[in-house]
Amino acid sequence: MIKFATPGVQGLRPYQPGKPIEELEREYGIKNAIKLASNENPLGPSPQVLEAVQGSLKDIARYPDGNGFVLKKALAQKHHVDMDMITLGNGSNDVLELIARTFVTQAQSVIFSEHAFVVYPMVTQAIGARPIVTSAKNWGHDLSAMQAAICDDTRLIFIANPNNPTGTWVDKSSLKAFLEGVPESVLVVVDEAYFEYAFENPNYPNSLEWLSEFPNLIVTRTFSKAYGLAGLRVGYSISHADVAHLVNRVRQPFNVNSIALVAATAALDDSEYLKKSIALNRAGMQQMRQAFDKMGLSYIPSLGNFLAVDVDDGAKIYELLLRQGVITRPIGGGMPQYLRVSIGLPSENEIFLQALRKVF
Ligand SMILES: *Cc1c(COP(=O)(O)O)cnc(C)c1O
């Protein structure tokens, strides 16, 4: 059958998600495994969100609000933007794909960096567009190289800020200068999935304030990380309203389900949970970095809720950690020596660090 698939799909490999806890426990016959593999919020959902979700269950026989009015209104208020600048997605991955499908054809190219988020090559390949992969600089995005790579046929650039799996980030003045040099015909997606963890850094950009200046700028955010809703799948973009209207033509009418809409709206309202999540991450990051320093392991400084640590052989250490009931993520690809570990609860971080010491 493969010859009947589109050329892009023929060259596509399925996304490898982090191993679920249940699967590890079943395969290895162990209990109490921990997962620090998918950059999820270790706090679990906010009680306020759980209550709202329970209240919404009685409505599941109805289709959700296809326009996501209540959530968009809350987001618009929070970010001081117009509602028609917001596009909701079934996770921000959905929005990333919608943007590519709205603007890029097979005859065009998409630029992203080496070691950047895996979804960018996936969506590019799926539509059969030409990927232009720029070399990383100190594991992060090299914006000058990305600028220089723009061709006549380039329609889209993906920038993850901070980037996953490296945790690297681009600062305010570099990103602003970059945007100034990109022609209006090239859309720039700034993927801010870890914004809530990163924004306290004084040099981290507030890219939303540039939207009026750059009609080709699209900022994406998610409820999957600091808001603790990865399982419900809600993300969004904020862009010029013209861009949002175009993406909306491609979007499936009910791409965000009714429970997710209610949960995300409730999550926005729970600032205590968000604060707690950010503080927990800050402390856990410190705990991990100190331990790595003591063990003499080098790691890439990260503004996200995860660290890429150099363990010589990521795949091997990943396997050995699995046997001790700890799920991490070998980065692989061009970074075979690295393991990515998500920041967990202090106790989970300690279990991981103990297991790592044992492995060494
Ligand atoms: C986790 C992550 C996302 C978010 O994905 P969702 O589909 O919203 O769960 C987007 N971009 C990057 C770089 C990520 O790491």
From TrEMBL:
Molecular function per GO: histidinol-phosphate transaminase activity; pyridoxal phosphate binding
Record-listed E.C. numbers: 2.6.1.9
Obligatory cofactor(s): pyridoxal 5'-phosphate
Pathway: Amino-acid biosynthesis; L-histidine biosynthesis; L-histidine from 5-phospho-alpha-D-ribose 1-diphosphate: step 7/9
Keywords: Amino-acid biosynthesis, Aminotransferase, Histidine biosynthesis, Pyridoxal phosphate, Transferase
InterPro entries membership: Aminotrans_II_pyridoxalP_BS, Aminotransferase_I/II_large, HisP_aminotrans, HistidinolP_aminotransfase, PyrdxlP-dep_Trfase, PyrdxlP-dep_Trfase_major, PyrdxlP-dep_Trfase_small
Enzyme class: transferase
Family that this chain belongs to: Belongs to the class-II pyridoxal-phosphate-dependent aminotransferase family. Histidinol-phosphate aminotransferase subfamily.
Subunit field text: Homodimer.
NCBIfam families: hisC
Protein name: Histidinol-phosphate aminotransferase
Organism: Candidatus Thiomargarita nelsonii
Upper classification of the organism: Bacteria, Pseudomonadati, Pseudomonadota, Gammaproteobacteria, Thiotrichales
Gene that this polypeptide is encoded by: hisC
